[in-house]
Fold this protein.
Amino acid sequence: MAVKPGSLFAQGAVNTFESKRPPLAERHFTSAAVEEMIKKVKDGLATSNPEMGWLFENCFPNTLDTTVDHSTVNGRPDTYVITGDIDAMWLRDSSAQVWPYLSLMKNDKPLQQLIAGVINRQTKCILLDPYANAFYKDGKKESKWKKTDITDMKPGIHERKWEIDSLCYPIRLAYHYWKETGDTAPFDANWKQAIKLTVQTFKEQQRKDGLGPYTFQRETAWATDGVPISGYGYPVKPVGLIASIFRPSDDATVFSFLIPSNYFAVVSLKQAAEMVSKISKDAALANECSSLSIEVSNALKKYAEVVHPTIGKVLAFEVNGYGSHLIMDDANIPSLLSLPYLGAMDVKDPLYQNTRRLLLSLENPFFFKGKAGEGIGGPHCGLDMIWPMSIVMRAKTSQDVNEIKACLKMLQTTHGGTGFMHESFHKNDAGNFTRKWFAWANTIFGELIMNLYLTKPHLLKI
């Protein structure tokens, strides 16, 4: 099989494009629609870019192949989704891991039921504790963090880091599932109660009536796992924004008003309002969702925009309402870079474009550029470690054909010979990476390739 000059395979790392998927009998779930898409993309790239077709084959089904546990509980679909090498279900990751399959459900009823099961499972998780970010399948299991974390840890919870996006992602998944299928079966009284808890939690974390019920401290030497001021974080002024003690990276915020996550909340609350109005017929709850969305949106207009000394007007990453702000971005989504992807901002918005210019430059302290590639990382993996997820998001928010091609080339040459995406890789050495099995990175890469193949296939012939 011909290999592109300069590719990892041309350098002798491997000499064939053998599938890295588990044997068929060992796969957790097989979707006819997903398999058909894999064949279509592989066949389409067989001569122009077989390596990219091979990467798609390995990565796109990775969530289904290795991380889902699908069953029926009390007559309803139930799907537990682990992140990969950690046996726990994050509300964020589980939503993002199955997200790219939504468009394929219409041709695959079992796949639709699997995703309905994710929604049902997430509802159970939120009802258990809306402040937790990760859960176990076994509701009686106790976390290892119970020994070190000073917070209200219940059985069934893996980790209790409060992150706004943990409650936004399930709404995003539910909303688009509903739009794709018209199915309202997952959206029962329990689901509506989870929406009520979401609104309640958001309001508590606006900090208008005190600091709220949530605190978190951990006995650790890892600074980004610690929360100052008795576990409440540094003070914020109650201006209408929602406090998030942790980022989507599971790292603690510096200033608790995390701007990308507040933008995500605005979108999610609008979607929740539409759903509870049309499905649950609850006008009061719908109005509560809409009013809160408007309030947060207005606060963002007033407090999120700052002036960078050389770039000009940009969005801050975090603020505190008192005038302090943090300029940076983190690879994890929601990020500032990802706002158009989440439907939170028009990609052509001058403010977004100016912010994007800052984020993809050395003015962002977590933008790294080296021999292997360039992209955004974050404190979670440390300096000089680039997250493939940020390269995917750069491509998905780009209007420049050459930029998209450059991102695809980086993704194709930085998998370290494994055939999979990773959490991060060193800017000068793609073989130095973190997390060999990280399903979210694999699936979002697959999402990018599928979407480009269906809309701009010529870009994949790099």
DSSP finds 14 helices and 17 strands in the chain. Confidence is low (pLDDT under 50) at residues 1-15. The two ends are 16 Å apart (CA to CA). The first helix runs from residue 32 to 45.
